[in-house]
Write a structure and sequence with these properties.
By secondary structure, the protein is α/β, with parallel strands linked by helices. The protein has 2 domains: 5-107 and 251-330, 3-Layer(bba) Sandwich (FAD/NAD(P)-binding domain); 109-249, FAD/NAD(P)-binding domain. The chain is 28% helix and 26% strand. It has 11 helices and 25 strands. Helix 1 packs parallel to helix 8 (302-320). The radius of gyration is 21 Å and the shape is globular.
C-alpha cells in the first residue's frame, strides 16, 4: 500500500488533535502535514486569565512543534486557495496535493466591520487585546464598564459572561468596585441560548450575585467612539467609560471563496461524520455550520472541535487501512464558566438530543476552577499528558468527560 498524504489546514485545537490522533494510528509511510500561518500555538481559553492579570502571555503560548508528536510535518504558510475538485491546496504560492483534507481554519475576528470598535473597544479574543485590556484595567479609576457582544455568531459562548465576572473581580481586588457599574449587553435573549433556559438562568444568577447587570436582545448598530456610547438597532443608547467587547466573527476568506462554503461562508458538514460534500474532505470546529434539531447552530467551541477531530482521525485511519469507518461525533460537549475569586462553574450535555439539547445544571465552586487549571496544564504540558497515559489515567474522561487523546 502506497503512502497517503493527509493535509490539515489549521494548527488550533482541531488541527492538533487530528494530527496527533492520526500519527498514533497510521504507519510512518503516510504523511501528516499541518499548514498554519503561525508558528505559535495559543491556548485561547486562558486569554480570559491574561485579561484579568492571572496569566502572562508566555504562559499560554507554545511553539506549535511542541504540541505535536514526532513525524508530523509543519508548513508555516498562509492558505491562499482550496480546490477540492482537484484535491489541491495553494499556500504561499506552492500547490500541495492531498489524499485526505481536514479543514480546521476556525473563525476570523473582524473588529474592523463594526464602526467604532477598533477606536474604542478592548478585544479579549486575541492575545494582544487581552494583554492591553489588563493594562487598561489597572489604570481605570471607576465608572461604567460595558461588556458587549457586538455581533453573532461568536466562538466560546460563555466568554462574555466570564469576562464580565473576571473584570468585576479585578475591580474588587483593586478596591474600586463601589465606584463602578458593570453591565453586559448582547443580542442574545439569554446567555448560551443553545444550552437551554436553565443554563441561561444559572449564568444570569451568577452575574446578579456580583451585581452585574444583564441586558439581552440588543443587536448593536455601531459604537460612537467620540461620545463613548453604544448605539443599538432599536434606538437605545448606553454610555460607557470602559468597553470590553466580543468582536464580529467571519468565516476565513479562503474558505468563503471556495466551493466548500455555504451561502454564509461557513462549511456545511454531516453532523456525525464531519464530511463535506466532497469525498475525503472533512471540516471541523468553528469553520463549520451544523444545525441542531431545534434549528439553532452547534456552538463554536473548542470542546466540539476536540471531539470532532477524534472522530475524523479515526475515520481517515479506517479508510486508509481499507476498513469501514465507524467513528462518529456524538454531540457531547462541556464548558467551564469562570466566575472570579478562584471559583468557576462547569456543565456538560448532549447537544444532538432531540428536540432540544440536554445540558445538566451547572456545578460551581473552587473545584471546578482548579479543574480548568488542570485542563490548561493537560493541554500545555506534553510531559503531563504522557505521565497520565503511562499511569493509565485519563484526566478528561474520568473527571470531566473530555476526549482522551491529544
Amino acid at each position: 500500500m502506497s503512502g497517503k498524504t493527509i493535509l490539515i489546514l489549521g494548527g488550533g485545537v482541531g488541527g492538533i488533535v487530528t494530527a496527533n490522533a492520526l500519527r498514533e494510528r497510521l504507519a510512518s509511510e503516510h504523511r501528516i502535514i499541518i499548514v498554519d500561518k503561525r508558528a505559535e500555538y495559543i491556548f485561547t481559553p486562558s486569554l480570559l486569565w491574561v485579561m484579568a492579570g492571572l496569566r502572562q502571555p508566555e504562559q499560554i503560548t507554545k511553539d506549535l512543534r511542541h504540541m505535536l508528536q514526532s513525524g508530523i510535518e509543519i508548513v508555516q504558510a498562509e492558505v491562499q486557495n482550496i480546490d477540492p475538485e482537484r484535491a489541491i491546496v495553494r499556500a504561499n504560492g506552492d500547490d500541495l496535493a492531498y489524499d485526505h483534507l481536514v479543514v480546521t481554519l476556525g473563525a476570523d475576528l473582524a473588529p474592523e466591520v463594526m464602526p467604532g470598535y477598533i477606536e474604542t473597544a478592548h478585544n479579549f479574543f486575541d492575545l494582544e487585546g487581552a494583554t492591553k485590556l489588563w493594562s487598561a484595567l489597572q489604570r481605570f479609576e471607576g465608572g461604567r464598564v460595558a461588556v458587549l457582544v457586538s455581533a453573532m455568531p461568536f466562538k466560546c459562548p460563555a466568554a462574555p459572561y466570564e469576562a464580565a465576572m473576571l473584570i468585576e473581580d479585578v475591580l474588587r481586588r483593586r478596591g474600586i468596585r463601589d465606584r463602578c457599574q458593570v453591565r453586559v449587553f448582547t443580542p442574545e435573549p439569554q446567555p448560551m441560548l443553545v444550552a437551554g433556559p436553565d443554563m441561561g438562568v444559572s449564568v444570569v444568577g451568577m452575574m446578579a450575585a456580583k451585581n452585574i447587570g444583564f441586558h439581552p436582545n440588543l443587536p448593536l448598530d455601531y459604537i460612537d467612539s467620540a461620545g463613548k456610547t453604544l448605539i443599538f438597532k432599536n434606538g437605545r443608547q448606553e454610555s460607557f467609560d470602559f468597553l470590553a467587547a466580543v468582536p464580529p466573527h467571519r468565516p476565513p476568506s479562503v474558505v468563503k471563496e471556495s466551493s466548500l462554503a455555504n451561502e454564509a461562508g461557513w462549511v456545511t458538514v454531516d453532523k456525525h461524520t464531519l464530511q463535506t460534500r466532497f469525498e475525503n474532505v472533512y471540516a471541523i470546529g468553528d469553520v463549520t455550520a451544523i444545525i441542531l434539531s431545534n434549528g439553532l447552530p452547534l456552538p463554536k467551541a473548542g470542546t466540539f472541535a476536540h471531539a470532532e477531530a477524534e472522530a475524523v482521525a479515526e475515520r481517515i485511519a479506517a479508510e486508509i487501512g481499507g476498513g469501514v469507518p465507524q467513528a462518529e461525533f456524538d454531540g457531547i460537549g462541556y464548558c467551564w464558566i469562570e466566575a472570579g475569586s478562584g471559583s468557576a462553574g462547569f456543565a456538560s450535555g448532549q447537544f444532538y438530543a432531540e428536540p432540544n439539547p440536554v445540558v445538566g445544571q451547572p456545578r460551581s465552586g473552587r473545584f471546578w476552577h482548579w479543574g480548568k487549571v488542570m485542563f490548561e496544564t493537560y493541554w500545555m504540558d506534553k510531559g503531563f499528558r504522557r505521565y497520565l497515559a503511562k499511569s493509565g489515567l485519563n484526566l478528561g474522561s474520568r473527571i470531566f468527560g473530555i476526549p482522551a487523546s491529544l
